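To fix ideas, we close by showing one paired sequence and structure record:
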Amino acid sequence: MATGVAVSAKALVKTYGATKALDGVDLEIPAGEVLGLLGPNGAGKTTMVRILTTLLKPDSGEASVAGHNVLTDPDAVRRSIGLSGQYAAVDENLTGFENLYMVGRLYGKKKAAAKTRARELLSRFRLDDAADRPAKGYSGGMRRRLDLAGALVAEPTVVILDEPTTGLDPGGRIDTWQVIRELVSDGTTVLLTTQYLEEADQLADTIVVIDKGKVIARGTADVLKAQIGGERLELVVASPADLQATVEVLTEVGIDKPTVEEHTRTVDVLVDGGTKALIEALRQLDARDVTVLDIGLHRPTLDDVFLSLTGHTSEAKGVEA
C-alpha cells in the first residue's frame, strides 16, 4: 500500500494582471487517496492543475508531485503523472487503438507492451468495438473515455483528472467512477476537479473548496456537510394557491429563507429541529387547510455546502481561471 504524501502544494500564488488566480493555496494528498478540488468557475482549479502538471509556473510558493519538485524536476513529474483535461486530447485521424499505442510508445513502452496496454484499456473503457475506427467518428462521450484511457497508459502513480466525466452519459460516468475506484485500490493517487458534486461525494476521501484563489474549506464530505448544520425540510403541496401559506409556515419553522419551485409546487427550508420541525410544519399547515402531497427531511448535500460557502450553486458555466 502506498504511503506518505503524493502531492503537496504550499503557499502557491499565481496572478494574471490584477487577478490573483491562486492566492496562497496549500494542498496535500496522501498517497493512494482521492482529493476532490471544488470551486466555482474562475476559482483557480485549472490554474492549480496546470501548475501541478508543469504546464504553468507559479509566481511564488512550491509544489511537488510523487516526490519531485514541479519547478526543479519537471521531467520527473511528467513521467510520474497521467492527465485527463477538460477537453479530450485525441488525434482524430488515428484509430482508438493507434491513439493509445502512440501514447505508450511516447512513454517508452516496447511495441508489444504498448499494444497489450492499449487493448487492455480499450476493453476497460468499453471501446473494443470502435478500437480500429478513426477517432473522428467517435461520439463526444467516446472521445472522453479514450482521453481518460490515454492518461492511464503509463500506469502513473498520480493521476490528475480535470472534470473527467464532462460530456459522458450516466452509464459512462458510472464506468469512469469504477475505474477511479480501481485505480485507488491499486495505490494510485488521484486529484479530481469536477463540476458534479455527487462525483466528489462518491469518490473523494477529502474535499478542498477554493474560491477567488483561496482555500475556504477542507475536510471529508461528511465534515463539510456537518458544518452547515440542520437538515432540509421539503414538501409538495396540492395547490399552487397554497404556496404562500406554506412559505409563511416554513419561514417560521426554518432557520433560513425557504426556496420555492412553483412548477412542482415544492417548498424547502433548512431546519434545526429535524423531526420536531416537520411535525410543527404539518400542524400549522393542517390548521390552514393546506393539503400536503409529499414531505421529507434530507441531510445537507454538497450542493448545500457549495452554496453556503460560495454564495451560489456549482452549476454556473463560465471560463475557468
